[in-house]
Known about the structure:
heterodimer; A: mainly alpha; MetI-like fold; 2 domains; 14 helices; 76% helix; 0% strand; B: mainly alpha
Amino acid sequence: xxxxxxxxxxxxxxxxxxxxxxxxxxxxxxxxxxxxxxxxxxxxxxxxxxxxxxxxxxxxxxxxxxxxxxxxxxxxxxxxxxxxxxxxxxxxxxxxxxxxxxxxxxxxxxxxxxxxxxxxxxxxxxxxxxxxxxxxxxxxxxxxxxxxxxxxxxxxxxxxxxxxxxxxxxxxxxxxxxxxxxxxxxxxxxxxxxxxxxxxxxxxxxxxxxxxxxxxxxxxxxxxxxxxxxxxxxxxxxxxxxxxxxxxxxxxxxxxxxxxxxxxxxxxxxxxxxxxxxxxxxxxxxxxxxxxxxxxxxxxxxxxxxxxxxxxxxxx
Amino acid sequence: xxxxxxxxxxxxxxxxxxxxxxxxxxxxxxxxxxxxxxxxxxxxxxxxxxxxxxxxxxxxxxxxxxxxxxxxxxxxxxxxxxxxxxxxxxxxxxxxxxxxxxxxxxxxxxxxxxxxxxxxxxxxxxxxxxxxxxxxxxxxxxxxxxxxxxxxxxxxxxxxxxxxxxxxxxxxxxxxxxxxxxxxxxxxxxxxxxxxxxxxxxxxxxxxxxxxxxxxxxxxxxxxxxxxxxxxxxxxxxxxxxxxxxxxxxxxxxxxxxxxxxxxxxxxxxxxxxxxxxxxxxxxxxxxxxxxxx
Lengths: 316, 294
């Protein structure tokens, strides 16, 4: 909708400045661009549900086909980042919270201050330079080595496809290519979430129920992992959902830098070439991811916080 | 005359001294304030204090091309032989302007809409405002800014507009949540009883109580605005050449990696320093307004 209101004639953009005016007019009619904006919106909305997402002016294909081709690579990247994110943010935050105002806490604090301040694309460039060019530990670009055939397409996620079809070397290679871009994506969220988790751990440590557990003589490990972690995770998980759903936008630059053939790179190209149908699809996919991520998190939060669960049950 | 002046200063210290005392008790936020003041001074006086002011514009000197950092050029020179220290200093100007413009355009309408939606919480337009804000929040700010900037002509002003468009709903949501809970407070009821106008209640009764949260968010957001602005510039949708811009410098310099690393690494460090400064400052402002003692 917003894209349609702004200046620039999509038909003219698609055909180039030297195309004859008749061809531009014909394409305008074909794309319903001469109709009022609400009519255009209706055409678009009915198209979304019938699988006709409009033709990408750039690839000359139905945008839905483009989405299904490019999205799995991005989903794989974002999932990997989400896993790295949780795997690092929770231990860092718990550790800093339990050892508040010690050397450990201060180290985590410095790491997270810097992690928040570094743009993801700078992290990506630095990782490429040091671990890629410099030490040759990780590959620099792409999803697989050029000599390796992609696995048969089942989910489109190379690591999972490789495991399903038994091509473990392909899966390992794909995983190896994932490490740097996924870490570059995850660093900012890790830093932010570790800090949020730390402050809620510190808050919950002073609550009566924790003092009760300590006075009952429960082992520190059980208090921390069983009773302290669950309530402390709630604020962090909410931010986690927001972070995951904005990863599709953060992946724009990461996919560009790592030459990752994914949906975000497709979306970025669409934006730079003013390919309206593709831009709209990108925004819509991002919106869907936002809704999905938040729904999952609502379920997780109701598992972590019995009060929310009982409230919902008593309302029924 | 002297006495009057003194008492004026006295009330001022009394009123704000408590905030300053709280702020400076956190040493880290003082560092943040120092960084931001330092960067602002450099940005304002860039044409007079930088060693090669001509490097900020369309200046080419191929004999000095891609020189590594040295005493004459502490940050080295870029592919056109321009001094990078100078360009970084001028780049701060754009970053700080971006923050100032984006936050001044988006915060005011965001806050006013939030006050209206929060005070008239059961009226239909409150729901309309909040649903529109929700739609904007559902799209990641970077994506929204990128897609808006992409359909406009790439320029510094349009980049600022695009980022502002992505920013206001967060303030609407913040102020809405504060206003909708404060409207049931006794002092708001009392003001209604004595016949105060809705405008008076919104701006004189509710707004001052939301100010702390708003200011905290403004300082914390400054870093994010710079991050998104840098990402826009990185793909070429920000300030156009030859205007020195940190994001553009990183992206252009990355072509010459790893041999001429200084072209993109020093601007990257500069961006990190500014964002870090704003984040530390934001934490200090947060401590300043939060009543709890940590």
